[in-house]
């Protein structure tokens, strides 16, 4: 926890994708939750080692929840395809983690909100590379490492997204997540 007694769901799980250093949760007494952020403290000390990284906690929350919703739906809907895809691109020691991950997903209903239990059960690490500016807009990628299986890259992400959007439109899922104004920040999630 910070001096103000605040703690993020992701404290201790967020790392710099470039240098591997931990990103620290930062806040202030009078900050609203959407103002809390993670930053790499070592970048200030060793500028030649890495650049400063910054990402708002609320953006990580939104990205992780959206990723979980998609991944969990995909696992439940296409279990065999999911297992096959991961086995084709994973290390041998990850293979036993695939079955365990599938069983864990099946034991959870579709997530509509993040809880500490859900995050710590399914997410082992979040890596944040340096943000990029494209046409004056800040773009921030994050890599979500799922417990036992790592980053989940579907073989056809466009097809997975199309199927997921059809699932949402079908009325079986009416949940919408809003994390506030993105302030010209686009987030791409791997995993």
Explain what you see.
The chain has 191 residues and is of the alpha/beta class. It has six helices and eight strands. Strands 1, 5, 6, 7 and 8 form a five-stranded mixed sheet that branches. α2 crosses α3 and α3 (79-89) packs antiparallel against α4. The radius of gyration is 17 Å and the shape is globular. Residues 173-189 have low confidence and may be disordered.
What would a concise description of this structure say?
With 191 residues, the protein is α/β, with parallel strands linked by helices.
Distance between the amino and carboxyl termini: 27 Å
How much of the sequence is in beta strands?
A: 15-25%
- How much helical structure, as a percent, in the residues? 25-40%
Gyration radius, in Å: 17 Å
Overall structural class, as computed from helix and strand content, comes to: alpha/beta
Low-confidence stretches: 173-189
The main β sheet shows up as:
5 strands, mixed
Whole-number mean pLDDT: 79
Summarize the SSE layout with pairings.
Blueprint: E1 14-16, E2 24-26, E3 37-39, H1 42-45, E4 54-56, H2 57-77, H3 79-89, H4 95-106, H5 116-122, E5 123-128, E6 132-134, E7 137-146, H6 157-169, E8 185-190
Parallel strand pairs: 1-5, 7-8
Antiparallel strand pairs: 2-3, 3-4, 5-7, 6-7
Task: Name the descriptors.
191 residues; three-stranded antiparallel β-sheet; alpha/beta; five-stranded mixed β-sheet
């Amino acid at each position: 926890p910070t001096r103000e007694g605040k703690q993020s769901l992701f404290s201790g799980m967020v790392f710099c994708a470039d240098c591997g250093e931990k990103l620290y949760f930062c806040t202030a007494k009078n900050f609203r939750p959407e103002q809390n952020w993670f930053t790499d403290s070592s970048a200030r000390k060793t500028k030649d080692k890495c650049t400063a990284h910054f990402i708002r906690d609320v953006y990580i929350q939104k990205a992780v929840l959206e990723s979980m919703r998609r991944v969990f739906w995909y696992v439940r809907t296409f279990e065999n395809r999911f297992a096959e895809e991961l086995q084709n691109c994973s290390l041998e020691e990850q293979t036993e983690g695939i079955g365990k991950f599938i069983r864990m997903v099946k034991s959870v209903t579709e997530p509509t909100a993040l809880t500490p239990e859900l995050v710590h059960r399914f997410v082992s690490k979040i890596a944040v590379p340096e943000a990029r500016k494209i046409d004056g807009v800040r773009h921030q990628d994050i890599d979500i490492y799922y417990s036992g299986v790592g980053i989940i890259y579907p073989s056809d992400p466009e097809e997975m997204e199309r199927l997921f959007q059809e699932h949402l439109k079908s009325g079986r899922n009416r949940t919408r997540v809003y994390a506030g104004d993105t302030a010209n920040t686009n987030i791409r999630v791997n995993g």
